[in-house]
Amino acid sequence: MAFEHEDMTTAEELAEIDRELARLVARRLEIARRLGRAAPAEARQARPEAVGLPEGLYPAILSRIAREAVKTGPTEKFPATVSEPRPVVIIGGNGGMGRGLRSHFERSGWPVRVLDRSDWPRAAEILEGAGTVIVSVPIDVTEATIARLKGLMPADAVLADVTSVKTEPLHAMLKAHAGPVVGLHPMFGPDVGSYAGQVFVICPGRDDAACEPLVKQIALWGARLCECTAEQHDRAMSIIQALRHFTTYAYGAFLAKIHPDLAKIVELSSPIYRLELDMVGRLFAQDPHLYADIILASPRNTELIREYVESLWNELIVISGRDRNEFIRRFLDVREFFGDFAQACLRDSGAMLRAIQEEREARK
Ligand code: NAD
User: Fold this and answer.
1) Which is the most buried residue in 42, 83, 93, 235, by most CB within 10 A?
2) What distance in angstroms lies between residue 137's CA and the mean position of ligand 1's atoms?
3) Cβ(148)–Cβ(91) under 8 Å?
4) Bridge partner residues of 82 (DSSP)
5) Residue nearest to atom 16 of ligand 1 (CA)
6) Residue 281 Cα to ligand 1 middle (Å)
């Protein structure tokens, strides 16, 4: 190969290797793109360890390429689950979520109509002949908007919503419409260009068979479907979103109150604390309205947060009483609750920290 010439400087050799590598990665990516999500994993059988690569390096490169390959562009077309889909009406279709849905349906050959805030005088006309109606309006007007659809939709049309809470909108949909109903929750913001690899929660309402083309269409966009009841979803969201963001917010608020020298704190931090601090700091770099909406989304969240805050008193009593044995007993109880998952967390977070460390070193 050209870069083996003796008179080449090391810099030239490296440049040639980089070009060669880039060409190979581009070829690998092109084939992976062509195969899409059906790309086989057999390249891993090439056993790169045999040529002296450190364990894990080659699979890491491959999985990065695989992730790149399934990213879809805003012009990618999708097959439709039904041959001649009836129109899908997106209520609130001019909003963030609505625009993303519209683009995905249109690229799958579904005719799309939008019914936004000022379109209600024409609602009967817009909804006439609709096969699917998706409600994508702000949370606080969702139930009232669903109620307005009563009697306006074809009896056999599927009624769905994408609201971040599921229990109340699902009840409202079942009440407003006697036909097929399904609750959806895209677990991502409107800024994602593609739904590939993103999670869509599916909460069955009524007549799952009639809702299937819609659900399968979402799967064809590359989204990962996660089915659960509306109540299971809302309980999980209270924990994953409201409680998590509240504790992060409260920690940040407390830091602001005791006002430490942040630069010093960062300098003295171990990588894991630095990562935890990143999680706190990033919250305050974002839109406060978004977090207010998430935390205040339902009284269930306030109840759970209250339960959490009240439970802290008992923990404080143990610490104030310097009751070491009691602390250890409680700690072991929690470990039992986490079970094998605790070991998996230790392993996964260790790998994550190593990757972050490596990236930070590389950036230096
Ligand atoms: P948005 O404010 O960007 O869009 C809402 C749209 O609804 C706007 O076009 C608005 O004009 C329209 N609208 C308001 N009142 C209306 C009415 N009475 N009739 C018809 N249209 C009306 O909001 P968004 O971020 O697109 O959120 C829409 C839904 O998606 C919400 O239910 C939200 O919970 C859900 N969701 C949002 C996110 C997110 O990160 N933004 C994530 C998951 C789910």
Assistant:
1) 93
2) 3
3) no
4) none
5) 117
6) 27
The label of the residue with tokens 């894991």 reads: 272
What single-letter DSSP state applies at residue 238? I
The pLDDT tens digits of the residues spanning 132-160 come to: 999 999 988 999 999 999 999 999 999 99
Residue 266 CB neighbours (<10 A): 13
Strand partners, 185: 201
CA-proximal residue: ligand 1, atom 1 (nearest): 95
Close Cβ partners of 55 (under 8 Å, ≥ 6 residues apart): 49
DSSP reduced 3-state for 134 = strand
| The token pair that represents 260 in the structure block | 């430490």
Q: What is the pLDDT of residue 74?
A: 65
Closest residue (by CA) to atom 38 of ligand 1?
A: 189
Ligand 1 center to 294 CA (angstroms): 14
CA dist 202 and 158 (Å) reads 14
Token representation of residue 200: 């869509």
User: Residue 38 corresponds to which tokens in the numbers above?
Assistant: 């059906």
Q: What are 83-103's pLDDT values in tens digits?
A: 999 999 999 999 999 999 999
Strand ranges (DSSP E) for 46-107? 88-91
- The residue whose two tokens read 């997106």 is 90
